[in-house]
Amino acid sequence: MRRTLVKWLFATYLLGSGTIWSILILPLFPFVGRNKRYRLAKMWCRAMVSMMRVITGVTCSIEGLEHLPHGPCIVLSRHESTWETLAFMALFPRRISFVFKHDLMKIPFFGCVLRGLDMVSLNRGSIRQAHQAVTRECAARLKKGDVVVIFPEGTRVPHDAPLKLASGGVRLACATKVPVVPIVHDAGKVWPAKGWPDHGGHIRVIVTPCLPLECEVPQELNRMAQAQMDEALAVLR
Question: Which pTM value belongs to this model?
Answer without folding.
Answer: 0.91
